Amino acid sequence: MTGGNKHMIAHNNLLIQTTTKEDKLYFSPLTLSKYYDEFIKLVIVLDNLFWFSKSNAKHNYISSRRSFINKYLQVSYPYLLVDNNTWKLSFDKTTGKNIPLIPKYTNRSIGFYYLHEVFQKFKLFSLIKKNDSILSIDNGLSLTEYISYQKYDIKSIVNIIPESQNYYKSLFAEWQQRINEISRIYDINTINYDGDIYDIEKQLEQSTQSSSSKISNDNKLIYINLKKYIDGVGKYDDYYNIPIYISGFIFALKHLKLDGILLFNIQSVVYKHCADIILIISKYFEKYELYYPDIHNRYKRSGTITIFTGFKGLNESDIQYLDDLLTKIKSIYPDEANDFNIHNPELRDELTIYRTPIPSKPQNNIISLLEYDINNEIYQPFRDFNDARYFTQVIFVQKMIGILTGQNKNVEEYLDTKLPTPDQITSSILYCKKWDIPFWDKYATSKMDSYPLTDQDLKNP
């Protein structure tokens, strides 16, 4: 799914709006899809089907239904044999074995195939030259692994990995293991950053001044994949990630060369303030495209990548504008939104919010960054993109609920489903063919179980 916009905005279009009305956040009137409201309502229905006790929701599930949901996500994911990083989906609990994959290369990073689709579809390798530098600000090492695997020879790749505010590290015990494996296989220049996100430019400049990891201000391509996860309020990640999104893209723009490329992973552009972030960035580029990868699991709310090409550069007025924007964001979220929580008891119950301590009053949150009305034509490309995306997700969750409530196939039949299914084998092969991914020509378990054997096999399949 793709989308884009040619409209230009000016510095004076900035108009930050906030609210303390908590019922206007997740259930916002400022959304850009006719299907999104239905999607989140269905997600709430689904949540209520498998939460056992809302008074202690973090620990209590209806175990049989939770098992079904895990298995359904396995059975329904068409590319189970391609992506080794769907994490909870790559292990078949009915057999107790890892499900063998069909690609000849076993990727270690989570965003490997997302980036493969983006580089292939938008022909990004044709825009990068041998003497170019690349910067990745990512929760993992997806870009470095992908470019290294492609054996594309460039001047340098520097990786900045946030330590404290890291989505993957907070959720997955395997995160550090994956990082170590990629670092062992490829020659990687990595900077671990554990400082204040608002001061990332200043702190990194000081810490790398005399280091081989010094960050270039002349990068041809920059990849931004920054997000954090706050347990107990996960449904509000489009709000509590605002500081990290804005800090990230401002840092990137100051380190990008003329005519450069920015890949920006923003998860979703369904809320107006998220679309506004894309529009603010777009004024500094010739063109941008929204993209939702084929490989992404339709159950998740994340997945949107924005591809900006033709960087125009920054003048002194632009830099002042961006610095002022960051100052305003910092005044609204002085703690980088790390203290984000919901006060309203009805909302906490309805949305299974369990983060504590509960704030004594509602917090102030950003709902808009630009002066445009939600119905302005500037948002039409976002509506079109989101409608295409969330229509498929509504159907996916409807089917899931139907099975769980006994309207369709029996739950026990799903729990007994042998993986991979014939449809998954076919879909995975077709995906590899579509995206030009080397794969085993037939599904032979014994053959694929023995591959890869060594780090050298991983590096040179």
Defining key terms:
single chain, 461 residues, alpha/beta, Rossmann fold, eight-stranded mixed β-sheet, two-stranded antiparallel sheet, 17 helices, 12 strands, disordered C terminus
Task: Tell me the layout of helices and strands.
Layout: E1 2-4, E2 14-19, H1 36-50, H2 63-76, E3 91-92, E4 97-98, H3 112-121, E5 133-138, H4 142-149, E6 156-162, H5 167-171, H6 175-185, E7 189-193, H7 200-207, E8 219-225, H8 237-240, H9 242-253, E9 256-267, H10 272-282, E10 285-291, E11 304-311, H11 316-332, H12 345-350, E12 365-370, H13 380-404, H14 411-415, H15 422-434, H16 445-449, H17 455-459
Parallel strand pairs: 5-6, 5-8, 6-7, 8-9
Antiparallel strand pairs: 1-10, 2-12, 3-4, 9-11, 10-11
Written overview of the protein:
With 461 residues, this protein is an alpha/beta fold. It has a single domain, classed as Rossmann fold, CATH 3.40.50. Helices cover 38% and strands 15% of the residues. It contains 17 helices and twelve strands. The strands form three sheets. Strands 1-10-11-9-8-5-6-7 form an eight-stranded mixed β-sheet, with helices on both faces. Strands 2-12 form a two-stranded antiparallel ribbon. Strands 3-4 form a two-stranded antiparallel ribbon. A hairpin with a 4-residue loop joins strand 3 and strand 4. The protein is globular and about 65 Å long.
